[in-house]
Specification:
Layout lengths: L9 E4 L5 E5 L1 H10 L3 E6 L6 E5 L1 H21 L2 E5 L8 H16 L3 E7 L2 H6 L2 H13 L4 E10 L2 E8 L1 H21 L10 H28 L1
Length: 225
């Protein structure tokens, strides 16, 4: 970068990303300095090397930002496993629970591996039932997912991988947000009647005062007699 670039000439890309052509390295450095920018070597293995005029500090910042975003995406998109029971003998209600779990994973942006286990020689002899179940799963989740890896056998397990269909998921989320907003606008607002606490307290105080005065009068009358 800048003075560390020893080779001359270089192939220069200007500050707007336009190819200038082959120029002397000192001339490229002067041009970068006049703009208050840096001359950065982008491809050192070619001859002449390719250099670009840029704000190197800003470039590094953008690169780190992209790297963090990439790591966040890779971390956010994990492979979750959903098992359809220990064998083919699983209650339909339990299958529904596992489908809801898979749906939550997909809506959160995760890839989902669906696993169907087979127990015993009889179930292994009727593996077509596993294919049928996997097709049912694909149909149930087709509104938010697509198949990355179709069903395949691995020992006594049948596996497939579903991935989020992001355009469909975003459309569903927008629709849900619109429904929530519409429900909030349509909700009736009932007027709250004010409670006249102060007035009630005043009336109670007046009644208590009147009772005390009456008691005092009665006592005075008894003493006088």
């Amino acid at each position: 970068m800048n003075e560390r670039i020893r080779i001359t000439p270089i192939r220069l890309i200007d500050e707007d990303g336009e190819m200038v052509g082959v120029v002397d390295t000192d001339e490229a450095r002067r041009r970068a300095a006049d703009l208050g920018l840096d001359l950065v070597e982008m491809a050192a293995d070619v001859r002449p090397p390719v250099c670009r005029i840029m704000d190197y500090g800003k470039y590094r910042f953008e690169q780190r930002k992209k790297d963090r975003a990439g790591r966040a995406r890779s971390k956010g998109s994990e492979l979750k496993e959903v098992r359809l029971g220990r064998s083919m003998k699983i209650d339909p209600h339990d299958v529904g629970i596992r489908m809801n779990q898979a749906r939550k994973f997909l809506m959160a942006g995760h890839r989902v591996q669906i696993v169907q286990n087979f127990r015993g020689a009889r179930e292994m002899a009727h593996r077509d039932r596993g294919d049928i179940r996997m097709r049912e799963v694909i149909e149930q989740l087709a509104d938010i997912s697509k198949v990355e890896m179709p069903p395949r056998m691995n020992g006594r397990r049948m596996n497939m991988i579903l991935v989020p269909d992001r355009p469909k998921i975003e459309a569903i989320k927008r629709q849900q947000a619109a429904e929530v907003a519409a429900a909030g606008e349509d909700a009736p607002t009932e007027p709250v009647e004010p409670v006249e606490v102060a007035e009630a307290d005043g009336n109670n105080a007046k009644a208590a005062g009147d009772a005390a005065a009456a008691e005092t009068s009665a006592t005075d009358a008894t003493s006088a007699s």
